[in-house]
Design a protein that fits this description.
alpha/beta, 5-stranded parallel β-sheet, single chain, globular, Rossmann fold, 2 domains, two-stranded antiparallel sheet
Length: about 300
């Protein structure tokens, strides 16, 4: 049975969906569906149990890649980077695997990720500043939202420690097995950045010139629909689980359902006080990234809100 040899390991809200889509459209690439099986991130088990396709064994996981005859066979589970177990386990599974790490300013990441968790009902505190303050309480098991499947996703500071996470990856694999892409570069120079990913994977260019935005921020249109979709209610649970599973296998159904339950959301804003605190918390992480990437990231240290 075919083994995946390529993993987009994270981080979430860093352009991973866009790169996943661009690669999936390349003739020599097979990316599994669902996009994020999450099989190796066992320390985020609450999310794994919520997948539309049950993955109870390695055989179940490998079935996602059945029939792939491509030179690059991969998946993109964005919490692998933050997971303590995922990278070591998947490298034991395939020591030659190539890993793509996508990052952005951690300050902007935690705000964007909080908004995503609000949309999918894992977070019920819509004010980011308050959610940030609750991290220690939630780590102790208190103030967990009723619809939260995995409390670990509410530890925004831990998830945003990109320097620490990247260093852990680099300590585990050879340099030529890992590529780091910054969201800034994907947004500002999409063609050049994507071509560099193809080069990393030893794939030919197909001359792609169209790089649409993918997975922009959304909010739900009707909360009851979002609850119905996201939760296993006692009476409707089996029906909803079946619908999610069918939707996972049909792009048309998935697109229709997403248009019904979600709408675009305006850019999230936070106070200057909270932004300054985030810069203080993540300053050392940005410094570590500068050292690991040998790149000037001083623009990330600005306490002004990003313009885009």
């Amino acid at each position: 049975m075919t083994k995946p040899n390529f993993f987009i390991v994270g981080a979430p809200k860093c352009g991973t969906s866009a790169i996943h889509q661009y690669l999936a459209e390349h003739r020599d690439v097979f990316m599994c569906d669902p996009k994020e099986p999450g099989y190796w991130s066992r320390d985020f088990g609450g999310l794994l149990r919520r997948r539309s396709v049950p993955l109870e064994s390695l055989d179940d996981y490998l079935k996602l890649f059945a029939g792939a005859q491509h030179s690059v066979v991969g998946e993109g589970s964005t919490l692998y980077l933050a997971s303590q177990t995922a990278i070591p386990d998947l490298l034991q599974f395939n020591p030659a695997a190539k890993l793509l790490v996508m990052l952005r300013n951690p300050v902007d990441f935690v705000v964007s990720f909080h908004r995503q968790k609000t949309f999918d009902l894992n977070e019920d505190m819509t004010d980011f500043g308050r959610a940030w303050q609750l991290q220690s309480e939630r780590a102790a098991g208190r103030h967990i939202p009723p619809h939260c499947h995995e409390p670990a996703v509410l530890q925004y500071e831990t998830l945003g420690r990109f320097g620490t996470q990247l260093q852990r990856v680099q300590n585990l694999v050879d340099h030529d097995q890992v590529k780091v892409v910054l969201m800034d570069d994907l947004q500002q120079r999409p063609r050049e950045t994507f071509e560099s990913v193809l080069s990393f994977l030893q794939l030919p260019s197909e001359g792609r010139t169209d790089f649409p935005r993918v997975n922009d921020a959304r909010t739900f249109r009707f909360r009851f629909l979002q609850v119905l979709y996201s939760q296993d209610l006692p009476i409707l649970g089996p029906t909803v689980r079946f619908a999610r599973r069918v939707g996972a296998q049909s792009e048309a159904l998935r697109s229709f359902w997403n248009s019904v339950r979600a709408k675009p959301q305006r850019k999230a804003t936070i106070s200057q006080e909270v932004r300054a605190e985030l810069h203080n918390v993540f300053g050392d992480e940005i410094g570590l990234l500068e050292e690991l990437l040998q790149r000037d990231l001083s623009a990330w240290r600005s306490t002004a809100a990003p313009s885009s």
